[in-house]
Write a structure and sequence with these properties.
Distance between the termini: 121 Å
Strand order of the largest sheet: 3-2-1-6-7
Number of strands: 7
Shape: elongated
Strand content: 5-15%
């Protein structure tokens, strides 16, 4: 009986061994069949060449003209070029830039773009992250450099001639960027508008470009709180751009300033409006002049939101990648203006409405200001009042 069982065991083992040897292996597919036809059916391959022949359509698709696209491509190509392998051909730098710009321009999900461009979902995410970082790293020194004295004085002259506010470096404000809730973050990113966000804080020049940007503050912070915890704040507090200049046609020497709304503190280098209760004529004139000049930053935010529609959607990435995307968009904004000129933007209605909504929220904070800051604001007030009397 034992011999029979032993023979049965060996025979059964032998049969299993033979079956395994002859069994056909099921290999994993290296490329999904959908993606195998990327060059025949992918959106980039059947559309890009046609778009190049129609400048208006190219601009609608990429939010920039072909020459600007090519300028960016030349800068980032060394950073995003990949090597081909024995098994597959890599995605070209041009297609990588096209996928990234299309993501920023439309706000479509990675999954949606994966089907359109016939590239895997994970590949789209990697492409967007790497290309946005490459754009910022390669071009930030050209299109968002640290302002020189010459650039500062040009801004001051342009602010005065175009917006009617002297000694102004730029206008300061913050914008909430919607994003998915980061893991283990609690309510840190949950803002007063009742969604999760990081904050883009920026200073805009009179031609709508961004002079300084800082991205990544918690959404629950107010604009003033965000500024107080920023590197930008520390720079100005330590005397960065501590330059004074006489007001036009006077001997009144005042420092160069940023313009901000009620959410920010009144400081030597920040001018904010007078409180809106019981305003006199001179205070009203000052507030109007400040508001007219400060709207530049609102316009800049409006332009990037209209052009790069990802800013109207929830960014479904990690916080770090969301920060990279937002910084890239701000730089693209500067590049497009530098290469193609200032866009047309109507701020007369929606921007003023936003200002009113923001001031209600901002008034909840208490901002302590120095006597020097009050005196500087008073000097601006008297300048505008005297100018009105002369006119």
């Amino acid at each position: 009986m034992e011999e029979f069982e032993e023979m049965y065991f060996f025979e059964n083992s032998y049969r299993n061994l033979i079956r395994r040897r002859h069994r056909r292996r099921h290999r994993r597919v290296w490329v999904n069949e959908i993606f195998m036809y990327r060059k025949q059916l992918g959106e980039y391959h059947h559309l890009f060449e046609e778009l190049k022949l129609q400048p208006m359509k190219f601009f609608e698709y990429f939010r920039m003209c072909f020459s600007t696209f090519q300028y960016i491509l030349n800068a980032v190509e060394p950073l995003i070029t990949k090597q081909n392998t024995n098994y597959r051909e890599c995605i070209s730098p041009t297609e990588r830039l096209a996928i990234t710009l299309r993501y920023l321009a439309t706000g479509h999900s990675f999954r949606s773009l994966a089907f359109s461009f016939r590239v895997s979902n994970s590949a789209v995410g990697i492409i967007v992250r790497e290309t946005c970082k490459a754009i910022f790293d390669s071009l930030v020194s050209h299109h968002m450099p640290m302002p020189t004295d010459e650039m500062i004085h040009q801004n001051v002259e342009l602010y005065w001639s175009k917006w009617g506010f002297p000694n102004c470096i730029g206008s300061l404000d913050g914008k909430h960027i919607r994003m998915k809730c980061p893991s283990n973050s609690g309510s840190m990113y949950y803002n007063y508008k009742k969604f999760f966000s990081i904050v883009l804080q920026a200073v805009a020049s009179p031609d709508y470009k961004f002079l300084f940007i800082e991205v990544g503050a918690y959404g629950q912070q107010s604009d003033g709180g965000t500024f107080a915890s920023s590197a930008m704040y520390r720079q100005f507090e330590n005397g960065y751009l501590n330059i004074s200049k006489c007001l036009p046609n006077t001997n009144t020497l005042l420092p160069l300033v940023l313009l901000a709304d009620e959410a920010y503190p009144l400081k030597r280098y920040i001018m904010r409006p007078y409180p809106r209760r019981n305003l006199g004529e001179q205070e009203t004139i000052y507030n109007e002049r400040l508001s007219n000049a400060r709207v530049v930053i609102e316009c800049a935010f409006g332009i990037i939101t209209q052009k790069w529609r990802i800013l109207t959607k929830c960014i479904e990435t990690t916080t770090e990648n969301a920060e990279t995307i937002v910084k890239c968009i701000c730089l693209l904004h500067n590049i497009v203006i530098a290469k193609e000129g200032q866009p047309r933007h109507n701020h007369s209605t929606d921007q003023r409405r936003n200002l009113g909504q923001r001031s209600n929220y901002a008034s909840r904070g208490q901002n302590r200001s120095t006597t020097e800051a009050y005196n500087i604001r008073e000097a601006f007030k008297h300048f505008f009042s005297n100018e009105n009397m002369v006119q």
